[in-house]
Amino acid sequence: MKGKxxxxxxLLAGALLTAGILLxxxxxxxxxxxxxxxxxxxxxxxxxxxxxxxxxxxxxxxxFIKSKGVLxxxxxxxxxxxxxxxxxxxxxxxxxxxxxxxxLLVLLQKEQSLVxxxxxxxxxxxxxxxxxxCDSCSKDDPSIQEFKGFANQLEWAAKQHxxxxxxxxxxxxxxxxxxxxxxSMDINGQIVTPANNATAMLYTYTPHIRGxxxxxxxxxxxxxxxxxxxxxxxxxxxxQAYLIQNGVKKKFANESVLLSMAEADKAISASDxxxxxxxxxxxxxxxxxxxxxxxxxNLYLITGSGKRQFESQKAFYKFxxxxxxxxxxxxEDLSDLAxxxxxxxxxxxxxxxxxxxxxxxxxxxxxxxxxxPLLDExxxxxxxxxRPIKTVAHETVETYETGQPYTFNSGELVKGNSDPVVYxxxxxxxxxxxxxxxxxxxxxxxxxxxxxxxxxxxVQNIGQAIELPHLxxxxxxxxxxx
Length: 482
Hints:
Elements: H1 8-18, H2 47-51, H3 58-68, E1 75-77, E2 83-85, H4 86-97, H5 101-112, H6 122-126, H7 150-172, E3 185-187, E4 190-192, H8 197-205, H9 209-223, E5 232-236, E6 241-245, E7 248-251, H10 255-259, E8 268-271, H11 272-275, E9 291-294, E10 299-302, E11 307-309, H12 313-318, E12 326-329, E13 353-356, E14 364-367, E15 370-373, H13 377-383, E16 389-391, H14 394-398, E17 401-402, E18 413-416, E19 422-426, E20 429-432, H15 436-441, E21 449-452, H16 454-458, E22 461-462
Parallel strand pairs: 5-8, 9-12, 13-16, 15-17, 18-21, 20-22
Antiparallel strand pairs: 1-2, 3-4, 5-6, 6-7, 9-10, 10-11, 13-14, 14-15, 18-19, 19-20
Helix pairs in contact: 4-7, 5-9
């Protein structure tokens, strides 16, 4: 039964809790259908997700509800007897109890599908948050009629979270149901250990895996941030850094590995709960340009996009490498890295080099015999600050195959020097950022925007705009200066 305290059973449990005694009823094991591997039953949403009352502005809140269903126009009676829209009742309750309006919307959707129902029934509105209704209880039970009604349901659910569950956790370390941070419990035959107060409260309100999984799915679908490929994210509070790639998060084994790929201040901050929405990928174990020797005596060069095997010992020594530089590893440690073109004795600059000729000021990045023109010094400042520029005979450079102009790394924030539009780079496409709100919600930093000449931006591929369904607004983000 959700939220009821007035029965003898709950009063007795409260007395035992005050005395420091916990009675946790045995839970019958049952089969749990396959769940999304990204779902972490120990960490469903963050405390901020539940209690950050400032997560949405009122206008965004209304626009989001309008995009989903009819609650922005549906009239209901509030607890003061006045007729208001359902949306305004939700907003009032969120502000009154300092509850995240996003959480209330997800709760309404999980319990009665009210946010997306184009024609909600009176009965579903009457029991909107499932408060005081147990799984086997009748909604016609006379003892729960005082909690009936849309506004009542929201009021009591919010009060229960803020004034009961949270205060119990802060005072006793557990809720009335014995749920607490670090307290292992059997939920549907699965051992769950809540990692934060919000998760302990969710299992108190809905003591089932499936119900909380449904809530997590709705939250993820509506409010999780779609980080573009190449985004480097640092978890909070864990401080663990990850690379987001193709919908998974890849942990950096240490800071050195991270710094070999990007500057530390380009990592954005995100809650560990937010990151738990992304399945774990393979750990990134080696720094860029590491030299590896495996148990099979195979020699590899690690690049930014995979691994290249040296065709022979002669190829290894030809480029000035020595065995002391080799890092021992197992073949399986490299299994997740794409196998790229092998390195032969005929290769030219396998680790890449900057070159120019005495006949031109053009600087080229050359790798494996292919030269890529750098259209502006912005690329030198971004990616090659410690690389010397080699002067090579014009005739030699002419023998190299010409590739596409060198471009920005995925995850970079860029704009033209006269165009206010800010883009994030993903897989060689510049994706417009539609608003300042989206920019800041994604965790990006204004100080990390790279300003490039318009002519450089003009030759880039433009991709789809970044979309956050609950925030999207017309127009595009501009820098603070503009």
